[in-house]
Design a protein that fits this description.
Length: 304
Amino acid sequence: MGTPDFAVPTLQALYQAGYSLPLVVTQPDRPKGRGRKTVPTSVKATAQKLGLSVAQPPSVRTADFVSRLQALEPDFFVVAAMGQILSQELLDIPKMGPINVHASLLPKYRGAAPIQWALINGDKETGITTMLMNAGMDTGDILLTARTNISGEDTAQSLHDRLSNMGAELLIETLNRLIANTLSPIPQDDSQATKAPMLKKADGRIDWHQPAAALDCFIRGMTPWPGAFTFMGDRRLKIFAAKPAPLAVEAPPGTVVSSFTGELRVATGDQALSILELQEASGKRLPIRDYLIGKQVAAGTELR
């Protein structure tokens, strides 16, 4: 059970490991992009290439769908970014348990956006957890974890790609050890739990009163989605990359300050943030030097 790109390596790993996959469950196809063309989910596209049966119920909780899964008599459910909440009735179906692949070191970052929030909060480490699912939101007993460092160059995209592959490897180890009866679930420490709520497009707006280092983390956590943005007059600018830089003069947060040719520095809550890559609403994604060839941005210009 999975939907986006994150779940694809897990599905592929199960197939390559020789596990029987009688059904792949994913979200219904939905329109995407400016043309609003209906496209299959990433998991559906992969499953079809592998010749696997696919189900796309609007809700996995209906009596008919529950009955369909019960009839399969599965040993496991494997869930990775499915996007629907499983009822207790569903969780009780697999003989050996429902297993979830979650992109954080639980109990940290329970919720829909653990990768983004680890970056936004400036964490130096994150990882993958496999767990036995229960009716709570990412509250089930921990099976295995795998860790990875977060670099100053990581974005939500690079971390997503790394964690999705780590999750696939960890899932196979988890299943193998459960089958061999060499793995004991460990209850989560709820007192250490933090949340990673779903992000909306509006959450990407940059608050220039924040320190430059925090804004660097914020931009990387928001890239590629929902995207960090600000306004220059009525022009919406999407910021893809930036780095803290010295601030030569005092200026209100959000003010463009004097800098070297081909560089765009903006005052923040402490020092300056040098914008490295951006895009206007109707333009191309550009390195800042290329952007400034066509657009002059004077010192004193206000971003908000």
